[in-house]
Design a protein that fits this description.
This protein is an alpha+beta fold. The protein has helices at 5-16, 19-26, 29-54, 61-89, 97-111, 155-178, and strands at 116-118, 121-127, 136-143, 150-154. It has one domain (5-178). It contains six helices and four strands, in the order αααααββββα. Helix 1 packs parallel to helix 6 (155-178) and helix 4 (61-89) crosses helix 5 (97-111).
Length: 186
């Protein structure tokens, strides 16, 4: 059985709403609000990702851009929400290079594509329009100091990789908090 981000978010919410855990978390209003907001956003972004996954293939270029921009943005917002949930409860959270790469793809493809500095070089990026499909696209890079590499981006693979890692992080946060509702010495 595959455990979904939704299942992991619901498990975290269950632990957070346990009276003993909740009583401790509410003592710091800002952290309480941060964990609540984070859980809501995790659920919202998971719903958006699920809606994308259920869409039939789209052929309209404008719709494909809107969907692609949306999916990439939602993935980054979800990463931030999980990071902030962990931060709110004092749980160390970091992501793999593969998941951090999603943020880089988002920044290059839709976040800051027309001029981006990296160290001493500057690049411009774009989605190759003819490559744009429901499942992904090819991202090109005009390196102002060199060649013009491109990379294929498979949105479904990115979603799958991120989903597994978000679930692991949410499970870790829930287990971290779950110790607060167990009697000492059990």
């Amino acid at each position: 059985m595959v455990i979904s981000v939704r299942d992991c978010e619901e498990r975290l919410r269950e632990v957070v709403n346990h009276p003993g855990v909740q009583r401790e978390l509410i003592k710091d209003t800002r952290k309480w609000q941060q964990i609540c907001s984070s859980m809501d956003v995790i659920g919202d972004t998971d719903a958006a990702i699920a809606a994308y996954q259920q869409l039939d293939s789209v052929d309209d270029t404008g719709s494909l851009y809107l969907i692609t921009y949306g999916v990439l943005q939602v993935l980054v917002v979800q990463q931030d929400a999980v990071t902030h949930a962990a931060e709110a409860v004092g749980f160390p959270c970091s992501f793999s290079d593969e998941v951090r790469r999603i943020r880089t793809i988002r920044n290059c493809a839709i976040g800051h594509p027309t001029k981006r500095r990296s160290g001493t070089s500057t690049e411009s990026f774009g989605i190759i329009r003819v490559s744009l499909k429901h499942a992904g696209f090819t991202l090109y890079s005009f390196d102002w100091d060199g060649g013009t590499p491109s990379q294929d981006v498979n949105l479904l693979e990115l979603i799958d990789k991120q989903g597994r890692e978000m679930c692991d992080a949410l499970t870790g946060i829930a287990e971290h908090l779950d110790t607060k509702r167990r009697p000492v010495g059990s």
